[in-house]
Amino acid sequence: MSKSILEQIDEVVKENDVVLFMKGTPEFPQCGFSQRVSAILAEQGIPFASVNVLLNEAVRQGIKEYSDWPTIPQLYVKSEFIGGCDIVSEMHESGELKELLAPLKKEA
Description:
- Helix content is 47%, strand content 16%.
- It is an alpha+beta fold.
- It has a four-stranded mixed sheet, with helices on both faces.
- Strand 1 (18-22), helix 2 (32-44) and strand 2 (49-52) form a beta-alpha-beta unit.
- Helix 1 (5-15) crosses helix 3 (57-67) and helix 2 runs parallel beside helix 4 (85-94).
- The mean pLDDT is 95.
């Protein structure tokens, strides 16, 4: 029996320390908000998984239900929903995001 879309999303969220559900890819974002969050994560130097919601309408709708959040992108850290572009941008500017991600930085 195949897994429901919410089970598949849950698996991705739990298997990755940092995962960004976005429109497009980090290399080729398809919206400005996705580009912004992707750039912030790159600036933080944190490896992250990304899911292009444009490739699958079920994922695009399912992630909104999963998080009870209406917009894309959506950032998850250690299985916790952090937020969308505005929240991530504010956390980045305040230094809160850096603190949140610090334990995940790979030792050089």
